[in-house]
Design goal:
645 residues; alpha+beta; nine-stranded antiparallel sheet; nine-stranded mixed sheet; 18 helices; 30% helix; 29% strand
Length: 645
């Protein structure tokens, strides 16, 4: 079998198949996603999910699913699978022979004497989803294929229900129909490459149930509208292409279009190919420029996450141009150090105080890769200087630079670091005062800037600050008896909860710690936080530790930052480890990297998810495809390559 191909036995095991999800994205900002048996388990699932700029730019599910029925000698066999309440109906997954993820999503069904192949493609530069059905074998003269679309026309974060406001009328177009359920929405055009009969049967199907939503504490059922069904006869060896798009097409071109879209698709025949393919899916090109979508299916554009993931998604693959394009696109949105995260999420947007420091870190990594400081200086010294000057000025009350050189966050009720979840306006983890990774990033940014910016006025202003920070960083965060760094310090009180942010004190190119202290930090992280899937956000020894990221929204937010495992933290861990151990440490990092391969074979296929339980078996949770997880894996791969070369 091919990589990420699943047999009949695997596919028909619902406990397994409903936990495996596919994802396809395109450069137009659309995506398609469902489980490998095409039974939607999330409100975010759908065959055509598009950003609708005419409304608010958010993603909207237009075509939720397309049900197939094969009619043999007047006997219908339903190939679709849905859950209504507690029952699966129909149960078409029982007819699936196999599922293959790459390079084209492919399912093979066997029913009666007919073998039917279904291949699915999201068009690269158009908001259009294509499905090609081919009768591979048939013991009968003709097989009749019926295709019933289910329409949602709602925002991805919401549910829809049967209502009298929907425009349930359709219009006939070439070999198909068009529908637009509500004003201001785009029209959905559904067409087939072959003449067919469309049988009008407008109706609402009630109570589609999405188990992942109930698990996450959200409303879990909705109603979907169907305008009727298409009916077409197919002979053995014959194919027909179904198209769902925001514009109509000449149906005579659909077969050619499908062939064109399948050529040159990324193969996903091994772990690294999966990572590279997944990395490209996060790149969103718009008139504004190039941006990084932080995760699928829900986060959207999210500044800090995008910058953390950027070096792995681009530089680790030698794609300097895309990295530079993203940095250039994001630069205008960084007003000093304030960057308002812009995402399609349930949480309130957050003003972070460290995103601009992550921006400088990405510039630093860009410079290390291109090895042309004159070019980096020309492109980014002005922005880097502006960022540092804004921190020093204290013009925003969210952060203050103290005389000891460190940055101080004065408000305990603001979640301004990467630990940014809140419940009823109160941070899940109150991290304020002197925060460890903020000051590690700050020190690194200043040291890099002193290399980058040669202006005399800048040098005079900043040259003495690194030595101040080195002294105060150790005084504030280090404890000789404990042998690791405090997470934060307020009014002399240090929080020594064993958390992962201290890794950055050991991993960044410029570290305020000596080698012995960095060794000690890593050893404590290894013993208490390291897992095969990433780094825990809190040690299991803590009374606040939560080993599973499940339950209500509030319970999941608490667990996420108090024991949940984040894979992206493995990249700085690997950096710190190799910096200290050199070539002798490569075997350990290769072992860690090898353990990650299982992650692309479950949950989001060919990609890596957002968070994992802190307790074995480290079950995947959250978004099925997370940019900083994929970026971290690619960075680790590149680190290994660099040390072995």
């Amino acid at each position: 079998m091919e990589y990420l191909e699943f047999s009949r036995q695997q596919v028909t095991d619902l406990q397994s198949s409903l936990q495996r999800e596919y994802l396809r994205t395109n450069k137009a900002g659309s995506y398609a996603s469902s489980t490998i048996i095409n039974c939607n388990t999330r409100k975010y699932h759908g065959l055509l999910v598009c950003p609708v700029k005419e409304i608010d730019g958010d993603n909207y599910v237009l075509l939720s699913s397309l049900d197939e029925t094969v009619v043999l000698e007047n006997t219908p066999f339903q190939l679709a699978t849905h859950k209504f309440g507690s029952e699966f109906n129909p149960s078409g997954y029982k007819y699936i022979e196999s599922f293959k993820n790459s390079p084209v999503l492919t399912l093979v069904y066997r029913v009666g004497g007919v073998s039917l192949q279904k291949e699915m493609v999201l068009v690269d530069n158009d908001e259009r989803f294509l499905i090609r059905y081919t009768v591979l074998q048939s013991s009968l003269k003709d097989a009749v294929l019926q295709l019933r679309p289910f329409l949602a026309f709602r925002k991805v974060h919401e549910m829809t229900h049967a209502n009298a406001c929907a425009n349930t009328r359709h219009k006939k177009i070439e070999n198909g129909i068009s529908n637009c359920l509500y004003e201001y929405f785009p029209t959905l055009h559904m067409q087939l490459s072959k003449k067919n009969e469309f049988v009008p049967a407008p109706d609402w199907y009630l109570n589609f149930t999405y188990d992942h939503e109930s698990e996450r504490g959200y409303e879990s059922s909705e109603d979907l509208f169907t305008p009727g069904f298409f009916e077409v006869a197919l002979k053995e060896g014959e194919s027909v292409v179904f198209s769902a798009g925001l514009t109509s097409v000449k149906t005579s071109t659909l077969k050619t279009l499908f062939e064109k879209e399948t050529k040159g698709r990324d193969s996903q025949n091994n772990f690294e190919e999966c990572l590279r393919h997944s990395a490209r899916q996060f790149m969103y090109r718009s008139p504004k420029g190039c941006e990084v979508i932080a995760s699928f299916p829900w986060t959207g554009l999210w500044g800090r996450d995008s910058l953390v993931s950027l070096p792995g998604l681009t530089l680790a693959q030698g794609d300097w141009d895309t990295c530079r394009s993203v940095l250039d696109t994001m630069a205008p949105d960084i007003d000093g150090f304030v960057y308002r995260n812009k995402g399609n999420v349930e949480h309130t947007n957050t003003e972070s105080i460290d995103t601009a420091l992550w921006y400088i870190r990405s510039v630093q990594q860009y410079n290390w890769n291109v090895k042309n400081i004159a070019q980096t200086r020309k492109l980014y010294q002005k922005k880097v200087e502006e960022i540092l000057d804004t921190y020093m000025s204290g013009e925003n009350g969210n952060v203050v630079m103290h005389d000891n050189g460190l940055l101080y966050l004065p408000d305990e009720n603001k979640a301004l670091t990467w630990v940014d979840a809140k419940i009823n306006g109160v941070p899940v983890v109150k991290r304020w005062g002197y925060v460890v990774e903020v000051n590690a990033l700050w020190y690194n940014a200043i040291c890099f800037a002193l290399e980058l910016i040669t202006k005399k006025s800048f040098q005079e202003k900043w040259k003495d600050i690194p030595s101040k920070i080195e002294k105060s960083f150790e005084e504030i965060f280090w404890d000789e008896d404990k042998g690791y760094l405090a997470d934060f310090c307020v009014n002399g009180e240090k929080d020594f909860s064993m958390r992962p942010s201290q890794i950055f004190g050991a991993s960044l190119p410029f570290s305020p710690l000596d080698d012995d202290k960095r060794h000690s930090v890593l050893e404590h992280v290894r013993k208490e936080l390291l897992t095969p899937c990433g780094i825990r956000t809190l040690s299991p020894k803590s009374s606040q530790y939560k080993g599973t990221v499940t339950g209500s929204v509030e319970e999941r937010d608490i667990a996420y930052h108090n024991g949940g495992v984040l894979m992206w933290l493995l990249a700085p861990y690997a950096e710190a480890y190799l910096k200290l151990h050199g070539r002798s440490g490569v075997s350990e990092i290769k072992r860690i990297y090898a353990d990650l391969e299982t992650l692309v074979q479950e949950y989001g296929l060919g990609t890596i998810g957002e968070v994992f339980d802190g307790n074995p078996p480290y079950t995947a949770r959250g978004a099925i495809s997370q940019a900083w997880s994929v970026g971290a894996a690619l960075r680790i791969c590149k680190l290994i390559e660099n040390f072995e070369s």
